[in-house]
Write a structure and sequence with these properties.
- The protein is of the alpha/beta class and 192 residues long.
- Helix content is 42%, strand content 14%.
- It has a six-stranded parallel beta sheet with strand order 3-2-1-4-5-6, with helices on both faces.
- Helix 4 runs parallel beside helix 5 (102-115).
């Protein structure tokens, strides 16, 4: 029996997860939730034709028979949406950043532990083939002793490929992308 997924946030990243679930027979999308009705219609017409669609998260959580939630809503809502999905009894996967503060993240983790539901964060660059290759080269000593690292990311944030919400936050490169780089460095330099 496939894992039944409710998708919270069907924008650019959310639509990628709808595609991923569609492509894997052990998962099935059962509900799409987004405040943008056009995004819902586009996703439903393309990949999730048998899904319930809603702009009301609480209603969707109440009326959907799901096992898990994938949260790809704007970052400012990640912790809140994770809390609501956990409260509905779902396992949760949330896009990075996990929360807007350590305090929010800690509260969500405590809630998941108290109800016995798993919560995980997606999008770790550390698993990409290039990152794994570099990590192996560093561990094998091929590059010598690493004592200094500089990260340069030349993306234009927010770019035309991101949702309009990204332009409304302060320092999007730091709050939205740097978390990937910090995690990559922890992995590459074997700093847990």
């Amino acid at each position: 029996m496939p894992i039944k997924i409710i998708h919270i946030g069907i924008g650019i990243r959310g639509s990628h997860w709808v595609q991923f679930v569609h492509d894997h027979p052990d998962t099935v999308s059962v509900s799409l939730v987004d405040s943008d009705e056009n995004a819902l219609e586009k996703a439903k017409a393309g990949l999730a034709t048998n899904c319930q669609c809603s702009t009301d998260l609480d209603r969707a959580l109440e009326t959907t028979d799901a096992d898990a939630a994938i949260i790809a809503s704007p970052s400012a809502f990640h912790a809140e949406h994770a809390h609501r999905a956990l409260k509905a009894g779902l396992a949760v996967m949330v896009e990075k950043p996990f929360a807007s503060s350590v305090e929010q993240a800690s509260q969500v983790i405590q809630e998941a532990e108290s109800i016995g539901k798993p919560i995980m964060v997606a999008e770790n660059y550390r698993f990409w083939p290039a990152e794994r290759t570099i990590r192996n080269l560093i561990r094998d000593g091929f590059l010598g002793q690493v004592d200094n690292v500089t990260v340069v990311d030349r993306r234009n944030m927010p770019s035309h490929t991101e949702g309009p919400w990204l332009a409304k936050i302060d320092f999007p490169q730091l709050s939205e992308i740097a978390i990937h780089h910090f995690d990559s460095l922890r992995s590459l330099l074997d700093r847990r």
